[in-house]
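DUF948 domain-containing protein
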Amino acid sequence: MSPGQIAALVAAGAFVLLVLFLAIVLIKLGRALDEMTIAIRKAHENSDPLFAGANTTLNHVNTQLERVDGITSNARAVTGNVSALTSLFTATLGGPLVKAAAFSYGVSKAVRARRKRKAEAQAEGRHSRRRGGKR
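Tokens:
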């Protein structure tokens, strides 16, 4: 055998080994693709109930949001009514009530001052009688 024929046999053997290696890799890749296909199919079959449940949940959430919207609009109306009532009360009764409160405060302060002066005068009269003189 000549060296060219030996090199050709080595090259042919290497090519056979390469083909076998690629065949093993392709078989494993095919199995992996089959498993992925099965997993995707199962996920697709199980996704329909999930989407139906999510749709039902979203419908309930939308219903509750509509109720909350109604409640907030009613609360807004009540707030406006209370504000208007407060303004009306302040305009009609606020001024006279402030004047009446100021008047009663002034009267009570004057009465206290008068009682205090009267008590001081009585105390001074008792004190001067003890010393024996009049003032």
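The longest helix spans residues 3-131.
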